[in-house]
């Protein structure tokens, strides 16, 4: 209970202990510990926004920006000494499989920051993404962008990114179709975990879509010869 205008709080004999001054202090301390554990836990997190670059029409109720809050974000250094970052978002499909929304995003960059921070250029191989939106599967590949990474304590980093991405969507009726390009904008806090990060990394480039060799040659989307993983079970 807070002091108002310099007056001490008035004790209320009917007030539960949890809301008494002493109880509030105790609970605040416990809450701080819980929040600290969540913020510094072993899953990381972040926020990313998606803007469609479709310029044919703009409906009255059409969302301008879609925002998601991934509950997992990991980074690791691969065998070539490159830093990788992977994010995963999953909603709770209360209305069944058709209400499922999930995203797997990954960045494969150059060497980690030698000092406190480093900025990276994003081209065709650096960013991959895959999403399941109900009965539709979407995949994304960067073609231009930028990301910055800062060291954020032992075994932790944080970063921000902006990238344009090519976009294709799949459903059982039409197969793979080219869709409007997208702009991804976001930030993250990642914890070191190669095992979990690689799992998301693999999912982000599924459906016969892999990163090209580090030759600098641009990669075009390759249409898979099979359905997306899991589509045969829908």
Descriptive account of the structure:
Strands 3-4-5-7-8-9-10 form a seven-stranded mixed β-barrel. 26% of the residues are buried. With 234 residues, the protein is mostly beta strands. The chain is built from two helices and ten strands. The radius of gyration is 22 Å and the shape is globular.
Instruction: Indicate the structural class.
Output: mainly beta
User: Could you describe the largest sheet, including whether it forms a barrel?
Assistant: 7 strands, mixed, barrel
Instruction: Give the overall average pLDDT.
Output: 81
Low-confidence stretches: 1-26, 28-40
How much of the sequence lies in strands comes to: 35-45%
Oligomer: single chain
Sequence of strands across the biggest β-sheet: 3-4-5-7-8-9-10
Q: Please, how many helices? A: 2
Radius of gyration: 22 Å
| Helix fraction bin | 10-25%
Shape: globular
Number of separate strands: 10
Q: What can be said about this structure in brief?
A:
Helix content is 13%, strand content 41%.
List keywords for this structure.
disordered N terminus, mainly beta, 234 residues, globular, 7-stranded mixed beta barrel, 13% helix
